[in-house]
Design a protein that fits this description.
about 40% helix; alpha+beta; four-stranded antiparallel beta sheet; single chain
């Protein structure tokens, strides 16, 4: 099986490339490398200077760093889901501000930043779509920061879960542990466990196996 044949179906799973013709997908697929990683594999460490972008098509990847107050424990900055891309600091030639590690078995497509720039420059519609996605992600980041500014732990968690559910409802919550939710929301694991229990009792969330589904 050729590289092009094996990568095109995976490339179709990346939202940025939705709508491209089969011919165009085959043309750009030669610039991508298909990567599969097991759980808890470190992809980059803080300070690395990657020269490529990575698009996630299956699984999840977390970005972690030490908080500014000097605590020893690393905290989760963001969790990347299928359709997201990371190591975007390579677009500016800047070092990564955090570690990147797989949370579970993950499938990715990696492309040299120079090649990605060339693809965007040769396809104006794709370039504008990329800019629109970046603008949307910035708005969502501001929304997330607004959620984290909520003083009440209960409100902070429910809004966080709603935010994640809207991002990718069929995938929520990617088996997030109580500790991970705490790290993402800036609170202790014990607080998360207590709040989730209270939210379940009031019917504001429900559990489907390990999935947490907001009901608001």
């Amino acid at each position: 099986m050729s590289k092009t044949t094996s990568i095109v179906p995976t490339l179709k799973q990346v939202p940025l490339f939705n709508g491209l013709s089969e011919e165009k997908l085959e043309e750009i697929s030669k610039h991508f490398t298909l990567i599969k990683k097991e759980k808890k594999v470190v992809l980059y460490i803080e300070g690395d200077n990657p020269d490529c972008l990575t698009f996630l098509t299956c699984g999840s990847v977390k970005a972690t760093s030490y908080p500014v107050d000097g605590e020893v424990k690393r905290l989760i900055n963001v969790i990347y889901l299928p359709g997201d891309f990371f190591a975007e600091s390579s677009l500016e030639g800047k070092p990564l501000p955090f570690d990147l590690e797989t949370r579970e078995y993950s499938i990715m497509l990696r492309i040299k930043t120079a090649d990605f720039r060339q693809i965007l420059e040769s396809n104006l519609d794709l370039f504008w779509k990329f800019l629109q996605q970046q603008a949307t992600e910035k708005l969502e980041l501001n929304r997330k920061l607004g959620i984290l500014s909520q003083a009440d732990a209960k409100e902070r968690i429910i809004q966080f879960l709603v935010y994640f559910y809207k991002q990718l409802p069929t995938y929520l919550p990617i088996n997030l542990t109580h500790e991970e939710i705490g790290e993402l929301c800036g609170m202790a694991r014990e607080t998360v466990t207590r709040v989730l229990g209270a939210l379940k009792k009031t019917g504001q969330i429900k559990f489907d196996g390990r999935r947490i589904i907001p009901c608001v």
